[in-house]
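Dear support,

I submitted the protein below through the web form. The confirmation email said the job was done, but the results page showed an empty box. After a refresh the structure appeared. I'm attaching both so you can tell me whether what I see now is the final result or a partial one.
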Amino acid sequence: IMYYQVQVTIEQTTAKGGVKKSNEQYLVHAVSVGDAEKQVNQKFVGVTLDWEITKVSQSKIIEVVEPDNRN
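What the results page shows now:
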């Protein structure tokens, strides 16, 4: 299992009727590019904005270190 960076482009209509595009980056723990795409597609189920996955690449991140909650 590896980490993949998935870029999602979202289109929103502005108050003046124009279209604003923004890119969001997601770090996905997955077994393959296809699995990473599948996970992001599942995350966006029901989202009413226009969006598309525009890039998937293997991340150089090898591990995410979570905070120790033993305080």
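Response: this is the final, complete result; the empty box was a page-load delay. The first helix runs from residue 33 to 43.
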